[in-house]
Amino acid sequence: MTVEETQVAVAVAAEVVEVEEPVKEVKECEKAVVEGLVEESESKPTTVEKSTSYKEESNYLSDLKEFEKKALVELKSKLEEAILGNNIFKRDEPNKVEEKEKAVAEVKEKKEEKTEAAVKTTEKTEAAVKTTEKTESAVKSEETEPAVKAEETEPAVKKECSEKTEEGEKAPELAEKKEEVAVPVCEEEAKPESSEVVDTDISLWGVPLFPGKGSEGTDVVLLKFLRAREFKVNEAFEMLKKTLQWRKESKIDSILDEEICSDLSSAAYLNGVDREGHPVCYNIFGVFDNEELYQKTFGNEEKRGQFLRWRVQLMEKSIQKLELRPGGATSLLQINDLKNSPGPIKKELRVATKQAVGLLQDNYPELVAKNIFINVPFWYYALNALLSPFLTQRTKSKFVVARPAKVTETLLKYIPAEEIPIQYGGFKRENDTEFFFSEDGSVSELTLKAGSTQTIEIDVAEVDNSTLVWDVSVLGWEVNYKEEFVPSDEGSYTIIVQKKKKIGANEGPIRNTFRSNEPGKVVLTIENTSSKKKRVLYRHKSNKCF
Question: Is this model's pTM higher than 0.85 or not?
């Protein structure tokens, strides 16, 4: 990296820090409350509180400012007018219109030829009918030759009628009267040209857009476009039209049924919810450190196109988890893990990332509440410099950046410990057979002062038919840790469950179990030998044994 590139990276680093600052800001009164809780936690364990610094903007009409309400009403009016006037989607281009008109003219000409042929056939058929009538009258008048002449005339007439109607036109029955014989015309010709059909069923993400439908989700969707364009109605309307046009041309409404890039299931996935109920989407860039997968995904333009379509498909799956209604979770929390990521030196990744960012920002406005980047290496700041021109200030204000040492601490601000995967310092395990539900064993927290020792005591009241299970995690670890069972009977011996050991900074959460034959308590001892305070998270429950 040149000196100039380094200067750019440093400048971008400063910019990112400035972006992160507003996210961390708390009102003075709230700050005092938080500090009070911290001081209290140093002496007494507390349940982990929800963060109050991160809330989605309200979609209730009563919560909107006057200019926002006015903009929403105006956008709904423009949208309704456009739908009723069939002006949502682009009209065909002039050359396409000419081709279509030419094709229609050819079809019309062929229909006219068929109609003329049908008219001629009908005229001949009428003549045949007249002949038949004369024949019948002749049969009645000539009593001496009734059977022979009728038999001779009738086949002749039938033969002539069938020969004249071989082109697919249905001949009238001879028994019918002349006035009942109709000219055979194609059904399409018989119908007068109808006016354009108005489609009021236009929808986006499963939400009807036509205001007359009265859907409670319509305002929610329209507010996303308005917020993305700072409540400038015309710009929001054009953005919405472009999104609908893009979805139509790209066939996005059927994308969930497609099989796309199945090898990328570990590159991005949905896992759990945050403290406000938003679905959490994890993007794991480190998987592209595998050269084979990298080439398979970004090797050429066609493959990059498939990657973009896969990313859009994942976004559509994520939207399926949202509640697009006032009061619902209408956006995602996105976690971007940059650990072992190939970095900006890979041109193909850089190009695909830029395209993905533009595509999602243009067509999925306000669907990401926060974009958290974790395990951020130094090169990230250089990449951010490349992407910044393509991001709105509103989008950049949603970025949060965390170095490897701050991953768990950062995630805990937005996601409860029981919903954070164990690889990020939380308690969530795949196919957990101990803590089945998030409400099983609420998570408590205590603060361990520098150079101090703290114990966590878990009572064992039931014996024989139950097993005690617990999770414990220390942010940054670097502590001495041991586990033991202390029986209530002073005559019984203390049982060592886990011998005292030094636990390194990169250690994940610890889970252990214990089954006792007598009442007592399990004691977890944590000794902080460092010069920094430590946050300790833990939970426990008793599982019945059958």
Answer: no
Range of the structural domain that residue 158 is part of: 97-190
511: left (phi over 0), alpha (psi -120 to 50) or beta: beta
Distance, CA of 238 to CA of 233 (rounded, Å): 9
Q: Give the pLDDT confidence of 182-227 residue by residue, as tens digits.
A: 434 434 444 444 456 888 999 999 999 999 999 999 999 999 999 9
pLDDT of residue 379: 74
Residue 461 to residue 412: CA distance in whole angstroms: 32
Same domain, 79 and 181: no
Is the CB of residue 279 less than 8 Å from the CB of residue 322? yes
Tens-digit pLDDT profile for residues 107-158: 556 656 655 665 555 555 555 545 555 545 544 444 444 444 444 444 444 4
**Nearest to residue 365, comparing CAs of 212, 238, 261?**
238
3 state SS of 498: strand
In the chain, % helix, strand, coil (3-state, to 5) comes to 45, 20, 35
Number of structural domains in the chain? 4
In a domain, 255, yes or no: no
Calpha distance 224→364 (Å, rounded): 9
